[in-house]
Specification:
The chain has 371 residues and is an alpha/beta fold. The chain has two domains: 118 residues, Aspartate Aminotransferase, domain 1; 229 residues, 3-Layer(aba) Sandwich (Aspartate Aminotransferase, domain 2), CATH 3.40.640.10. A seven-stranded mixed beta sheet has the order 2-10-9-8-5-3-4, sandwiched between helices. The chain has a three-stranded antiparallel beta sheet with strand order 11-12-14. Strands 1-13 form a two-stranded parallel ribbon. It starts with 8 loop residues before the first strand and ends with a helix.
């Protein structure tokens, strides 16, 4: 079990584990925040208490990520999936082209929406090898004049992760990133991006809210008439309050940002995430019972994917792990096997517990694997 409170080790890919200190603070603030006599979920999104929460969340987000003044911070609802169409709707005009990296299911969801608004060019793809790697620089072919180049920084389902940004994008283009599953897990140079978006439910907070960080000139792009709710600039100008936001989500993101700073910032997050994933990857590389999905050099620190020798053993593994307090380890239906998601708030003790279970399971089922 995770600890004496009855909580287990939660390997869910999202909604995912949240910091215990944040959860305990939220318990109090749900009932009565800032001695207002009202809980956070009951306050008006236009009231003074939520004014303060909005300002603090924006400022904390900027401090944690060293977000430059050239970029606006805001949030929207609809999840990262809504951003799949909102990005080309806001940024791509008729007759223009956007370049996309195809590195998995979520990248594919974005790619599917682009032709509704403009031209699509796949500049690199890992699909031929079942998305087990990040495309090598030599395999990238950009189009001549893309408006933007989009990539998914961490591919949750397959367990691959970019260790930096795509290089050599054409002059005049800007980077767009779906950073949903590794946002603020390490330092990044946000000044290199035109737009970053991330569903909060993995590293930042609860489901139901999406963080956006956009360069001001990118927000000024307006290639077509759109409904007001779809325009990025409306949401940026109102810092996420163009309409009623997920007020609890905004509050909880702020508390998570505060926790990241208290833990030492993004440098400390990177060290801890590297250490956690190394515990599991070192074991995977030392044995021959389990097979990792992602290739070395492309492996995610957030989502570790692997499988047993047979699909039947995969099922037994997840069932027995659940009984041992290692929960939500079943892999996505697209690649099956197992997936251990270990975002910022996941403790290293859980990584050691997983490896201990993997060792005993492999020993117990070695004969079945050879049959």
């Amino acid at each position: 079990m995770g600890d004496m409170s009855g909580r287990v080790f939660n390997f869910s890919a999202g909604p995912a584990a949240l910091p215990e200190a944040v959860l305990r603070q939220a318990q109090r603030d749900i009932f009565n925040i800032a001695d207002s006599g009202i809980g956070i979920m009951e306050h008006s999104h236009r009231g003074k208490v939520f004014d303060r929460i909005t300002d603090e969340t924006e400022a904390l987000c900027r401090e944690v990520g060293s977000v430059p003044d050239s970029h606006k911070i805001f949030w929207m609802m609809g999840g990262a999936t809504s951003q799949c169409y909102m990005v080309p709707a806001n940024l791509l005009g008729d007759g223009q082209t956007a370049d996309y990296f195809n590195t998995g299911k979520w990248a594919g969801d974005s790619i599917r929406e682009v032709p509704l608004y403009g031209g699509l060019h796949i500049c690199a793809s890992s699909e031929p090898t079942n998305h087990d790697r990040i495309p090598a620089p030599g395999d990238v072919r950009y189009s001549d004049r893309p408006v933007y180049v989009q990539f998914t920084s961490n591919n949750t389902i397959v367990g691959t992760e970019w260790r930096g940004e795509p290089e050599g994008i054409p002059d005049g283009s800007f980077l767009v990133c779906d950073a949903s599953s590794n946002i603020y897990s390490r330092p990044i140079d946000i000044g290199r991006y035109g737009l970053i978006y991330a569903g909060a439910q993995k590293n930042l907070g609860p489901s139901g809210i999406t963080l956006l960080i956009a360069r001001e000139d990118v927000l000024g792009i307006s290639p077509r008439k759109l409904p007001e709710m779809v325009h990025y600039k409306n949401h940026a100008d109102w810092v996420g309050r163009f309409n009623t936001p997920n007020t609890f989500g905004v509050y909880l993101m702020g508390e998570v940002f505060r926790w990241i700073l208290a833990e030492g910032g993004l440098g400390a997050m990177a060290e801890k995430n590297e250490a956690k994933s190394k515990v599991v990857y070192d074991f995977l590389d030392s044995q021959d019972f389990y097979t990792p999905h992602a290739r070395e050099g492309s492996r995610s620190r957030m989502n570790i994917t692997f499988r047993c020798p047979t699909g039947a053993l995969d099922t037994v593994f997840t069932q027995e792990a659940e009984k041992a307090g290692l929960c939500n380890l079943a892999g996505h239906r697209m690649i099956k096997g197992m997936r251990a998601s270990m975002y910022n708030a996941f403790p290293i003790e859980g990584a050691h517990a997983l490896v201990g279970f993997m060792k005993s399971f492999a020993h117990e089922h070695a004969s079945a694997a050879r049959a």
